[in-house]
Structures are given as C-alpha cells and as structure tokens.
Design a protein that fits this description.
CATH class: Mainly Alpha
Structural class: mainly alpha
Number of helices: 19
Strand content: under 5%
Number of strands: 0
Mean pLDDT: 81
Helix content: over 70%
Oligomer: single chain
Largest sheet: none
C-alpha cells in the first residue's frame, strides 16, 4: 500500500498536521523556528508546481482543441458525440455552482476551520482579488498582451487566446498543422515530466506544508479538510445519479438492464480509479447487455475515454467553490460564467494528464479566474484519493449512458434504410 504515491502523501499530511499541532502546543521557540525553516521547503515545492501551470495549460488546450477538431472531421456520429460531451461538461459546471450554493447553505464552512486553513496557507488573505465589473470582464476576455497575461496569471484571457489559437491551427495545411501540434504536444509532455518529478517529492512537500498548517492552525484544519472531501464526493455522487437518470429516461434503457450492465463497470472503476482500465468492460457490457452496435461502441467509448470526464468540471470547480467559502469571497455572475467556461475548457484539454498532474493544472486556473490563492491546493491534493474514486465511477457511468443514448439515435436513423421495398 505504501507504494502508492497518494497513500504516502496522505500519511505525510497527517504526520505534518499532527507534529505541527504538537509543536504549537508544547514546543519552544527554537523548535517552532526550525519548523518554519522546514516549511520553506514546502513553499519551494509549491512554487515548482506553480511554474508549470501557464505553459502546461496553454499547450494542452491547443493540442486538445486541435484533436477535438480532427475528431469532428471523422463523421456525423463523431460530431454528435462531441457536441453532447461539451454540453454535458458545461451542464456539469453549472450544476456545481448550484450544488455548492445548496450544500454550503446546509453545511457552511466553519469560521474557525476556514481561518485554520487560511492560517496554514503561505498566501495572505488580502491577496484575494475583488470581482471585476462586467465592463472590465468583457474588455479583459481578449488579452492585450499575451505574454503579460501569462506573467500576471490572467488565465481566462489566456484560455480564450489558446482556444482561438487551437482552432486556427486546424485551418492550416495538414503538414504545417501537424508540425505545430507536435510542438505543443512536446511542450505539454515536457511540462508533465517536470510535474511528475515535482510530485515525486510530494510527500516531503506536503509534510513541510502540513507542519506549517499544524503549527499555525493546530488540529482545527482537519475538520474542514474532511468537510472538503465530503463536499466533492457528494457533488460527484450527485452527478453520477444524474447520469444514471439520463440512461433511464433519455436513453430509455430499462432499469434492470441498465443496472446489470453498469454495475460491474462501476465496481471496476471503484477499484482501479481509471476510466481507461474500464474501457474493455464498458465495450463488453454495452455490446452484450445494451445491444449497442460495434460501430457505435468502437467510436463513442474510445472518444469518451479520451476527451470526456463528466465529473471533471464538477470536481475541479467544486474545489474552487470550497475555497470561495474558506476565503469568504463572493464572485459576481460574470466571474462565475468565466469560471464555468474555463472549467469546461480545461476539463476537455487535461483528460490525458495523470490524476495528480491534472488536479493542479485544472484547478489552479480556476482559482486564478476567481481571484483565489492556490496555496491550500497542495493540502487538498493529499486527500484527493477519496473524491477520485467517485470521480471515476461517475465518468464510466456517463460514458456508458452517452453511448446508450447515441446508439438509440443510430438505430432509429438506420430503420428506414433497413426496410426493403
């Protein structure tokens, strides 16, 4: 079990919080100063993650959009699949905002717990930005200077530029397009390699940051970390239930057949936390239990696994919604619209990234759009293993539900052709 990086990071967080809290209660000034020096190692580790965000996001957005456009060119079913994927991801982001409003109204972030988390972060609360006016928001959608926007972590205009850039690449001749796509693919791969190197030191970095959180906040932060896990897990479960209902009432799969077909795949998702590992089981269940034609499973399921993670916007935006409550920030409608757009775009673009890489690469831009510090994210990465289980279960449920729905449309469209004169 200790071979798992997620488990080692979780143990490091618990140990850091406990030792830091013990030092706050019993240690002298010398020990506390030593802990602050150790915490600087955690700050170095956090900055090492931060430095990859802008180039990684830009690279994966450009290559992701170019890839989606190429997939759309393969035919009507591919275009229909892509449109449904984008629509469901956007719906998921909107659902998350509404879910967060209801959830935190019933179970608000405790003032003491939120203060404990903020006390453990290296960024001061006064770094939180104010919500922009609608005029400044609209004017800022297109960056006046792309390099300046990148240096100032202005993620939304950077995402808008990357979106236009990615689609513009698809208008080039194939040879020139491939060269640019390969360039940004290589940049993205290099950034992923750097992040993987940094994540190898995650137990050390999280332990050092956990010491600081424990020293300044005591054990009070632990309750809000559990609150966060519950919020993200329940949001994912809610979206999974909606995917289940989609299969029953939109795809019109009988309950008994749907339950029998999806249950083994959900069990595999729970165990593996990998949609890709569940792909063979999804193909088999869709073909044998749901009667989906091979031409549909052969296109829709691989495409869904490649670019569709239904719970991506739900979980990623859910983290930002939690941090909004911790920092007591109230974004305007235009800011939330921008966050929904970024959540959808980054979910499409970052699906090929490893889990812990995509966590920071997908959520840090959302925090920047909403004007939130990212300094609590390394602590939340440590407990991501729990919500990630429910993410994967939701993703495979949605993949199969979408496949069943599109197969129904294909069969209906084929009926007139199948009847002889």
């Amino acid at each position: 079990m200790l071979k798992s990086l997620s488990v080692r990071v979780l143990i490091a967080l618990i140990a850091g919080l406990a030792l830091g809290a013990a030092a706050a209660a019993y240690a002298g000034p010398g020990i506390k100063h030593a802990i602050e020096l150790i915490e600087s190692v955690g700050g170095l580790w956090l900055n090492s993650l931060r430095m990859t965000v802008v180039p990684l996001i830009f690279a994966v957005l450009v290559t992701g959009i170019a890839g989606v456009a190429d997939a759309a060119a393969t035919g009507r079913l591919a275009v229909k699949t892509l449109l449904w994927i984008v629509g469901i991801l956007t719906f998921g982001a909107c659902y998350t905002v509404l879910f967060a409003d209801g959830f935190y109204a019933l179970w608000p972030v405790a003032q003491a717990g939120g203060a404990a988390l903020k006390a453990g972060a290296t960024a001061a609360p006064d770094l939180v930005k104010q919500a922009p006016s609608i005029i400044s928001f609209v004017k800022g959608l297109a960056p006046q200077n792309v390099i300046k926007a990148a240096s100032e972590d202005s993620i939304l205009p950077l995402v808008v530029f990357a979106t236009f850039f990615g689609f513009a690449i698809t208008r080039l001749p194939i040879a020139r397009r491939q060269g640019l796509t390969d360039l940004f693919q290589n940049i993205g791969d290099v950034m992923v390699t750097i992040v993987r190197w940094v994540l190898l030191a995650a137990p050390v970095g999280v332990f050092a940051l956990g010491l600081g959180v424990g020293l300044r906040a005591g054990i009070g932060a632990a309750g809000e970390i559990a609150h966060y896990v519950a919020a993200i897990s329940l949001a994912n479960i809610g979206m999974t239930i909606l995917a289940y209902l989609f299969a029953l009432f939109v795809a019109r799969v009988p309950l008994a057949i749907w339950a029998r077909s999806v249950a083994p795949v959900q069990v595999a998702a729970f165990a593996t936390q990998s949609s890709l590992a569940c792909l063979p089981a999804m193909i088999e269940r869709c073909r044998d239990d749901l009667g989906v034609p091979d031409r549909v499973t052969g296109l829709v399921l691989p495409l869904s696994v490649a670019i569709f993670r239904m719970t991506g916007p739900v979980a990623n935006l859910g983290v930002a919604m939690f941090l909004l409550r911790v920092y007591d920030v109230h974004p305007g409608v235009v800011q939330l619209i921008g966050a929904i757009f970024v959540a959808t775009a980054t979910s499409l673009a970052s699906v090929s990234l490893p889990g812990q890489v995509s966590f920071f690469a997908s959520i840090a831009p959302l925090c920047m759009v909403l004007g939130l510090p990212v300094d609590i994210l390394p602590i939340l990465i440590a407990v991501e293993v729990i919500p990630d289980i429910f993410r994967t279960v939701g993703n495979v449920t949605a993949d199969m539900a979408l496949t069943a729905f599109l197969a129904r449309g294909e069969r209906q469209g084929a009926e007139p052709v199948a009847q002889p004169a």
